[in-house]
Amino acid sequence: MSGTAQIGVTGLAVMGRNLARNFARNGFTVALHNRTASKTHALVDEFGEEGVFVPADSAEEFVAALERPRRLVIMVKAGDATDAVIQEFAPLLEEGDVIIDGGNAHFADTRRREKELRERGIHFVGVGISGGEEGALHGPSIMPGGSKESYESLGPLLERIAAKAPDDTPTVAHIGPDGAGHFVKMVHNGIEYADMQLIAEAYHLLRAVAGYSPEKIAETFRTWNTGRLDSYLIEITAEVLAHRDAATGKPFVDVVVDQAEQKGTGRWTVQIALDLGVPVSGIAEAVFARSLSGHAALRDVSQTLPGPTATALSEDEAARFADRVEQALYASKIVSYTQGFHQIQAGSEEYGWNIDLGSVAAIWRAGCIIRAAFLDRIRGAYDAQRDLPSLLADKQFAEEIGAAQDDWREVIATAVRQGVPTPGFAAALSYYDALRAERLPAALTQGQRDFFGAHTYRRTDREGSFHTLWGGDR
Ligand code: ATR
Predict the structure, then answer these.
(1) Which residues bind NADP(+) (predicted)?
(2) What is residue 240's predicted lDDT score, i.e. its pLDDT?
């Protein structure tokens, strides 16, 4: 016997609730389930008129409510809860049914779960969903992994609930098999960390070097948001900076404790990048900057360590400096995305996912936190050359970053002179300069390795592996 619901959602906390409502608002009949049944009924009581919901109090009832092949979305806490829910539902399912995990799972867990369920004839689709609560309700950016076959069944539903890019295409695409969707979502979050860190550095420089107030910086960001930096994160940053604390009347940013927290996807991105040997220095610096900010005891020396004395800028000089910061921010952003897309490419090769990088850029154009006009350019670069070795190999990006480099260097030099930390900007410039270098000092590193460990080296003028007998008696 099968039911009438085209999709079911189990786990009705904020994200699950909003996703279920999004499906219903788009005309799908949605079966609902939650460990604590009261939440299921609360949703129907509050939003019942938005569409057709079929509330279920037990796992059996929930499964029976779904049409076949069944599509069942799990929206519980990532980790053990996901495994527990899979164990509960899998025995009730039949061959060809599809379990969708919309949580923030680690892609390695998704690979494990997909393999186990595949052996039982059940499709398991790990789906990255970005856009927060609002996105889940009004249209997120959706990154599904899993088999091609499962996407044939699931894709049309996801296309209806996804956000729409400026060219009206839905921001969802089948990323690749097994954990590919969660992997790409992980790197998305890593890039988000880097974007946020770079914006924070721009703010810090405008405040400390240009002497701008938070309001003035908000205004500056609003102007930038009308140009090539047009993005959700720049837009909300301007709002945060313009906001005043109701209790004290002070700029909101001045009453917040300056210790950034994290949930872990940025850290995963860096951990996996280390395993894959991909240099994602911008993302790493962003994760480390958050860690550093949280070490209160480490920062106890703030009053004792000497630094340079700040030099005040005239109004004209400050405005010129702000323009330069825009150049530095844009150039550093190009590097962050270069590094992030490199990681996706490396993951795709390692796991045989065959990910289309242009389509990843395309589905990040709307719905997600890093949505930006810029992503359409990245899509264009990869669409023009699918096997582009790096974004910096694209002629237009190379030209833009080249045009920005003088200002970029000047901003970092000023930051160093004035004692303002800019780990993101500086790491990005070092990456750029390393790629530009004809010869890297890695040759010397190889010499050292051969000296102390007989690790051998390759030569520029001959094939083969060489070892030098250093200093005779070693
Ligand atoms: P919140 O997001 O509200 O902080 P959470 O603890 O992250 O809550 O849990 C999110 C969802 O996962 C909830 O729907 C929760 O069910 P309850 O409403 O019954 O708490 C669900 N969940 C968490 N652990 C679970 C488990 N082991 N089995 C089934 N559902 C679980």
Answers:
(1) 11-16, 34-36, 76-78, 104
(2) 98
437 pLDDT higher than 80: yes
Residue owning the nearest CA to atom 3 of ligand 1:
13
Helix (H, G, I), strand (E, B) or coil at 74: strand
Q: How many CB atoms lie within 10 A of CB 14?
A: 12
The residue-averaged pLDDT of 209-220 equals: 98
Query: Annotated binding residues for NADP(+), as ranges?
Result: 11-16, 34-36, 76-78, 104
Rounded to the nearest 10 degrees, the angle between the axes of helix 315-351 and helix 265-276 is 60
Does 74 contact ligand 1 (Cβ within 6 A)?
no
The token duo for 353 is 């996912």
Tell me the CA distances in angstroms from 28 to 50, 191, 266, 355, 458, one per residue in order: 11, 33, 34, 29, 62
> How large is the ipTM?
0.92
- 279 CB neighbour count, 10 Å cutoff: 18
| pTM as predicted | 0.96
Q: Kindly give, in sequence order, each residue whose CB lies less than 8 Å from that of residue 414, ignoring residues fewer than 6 positions away.
A: 205, 209, 321
- At residue 362, does pLDDT exceed 60? yes
> Which pLDDT does position 471 carry in this prediction?
85
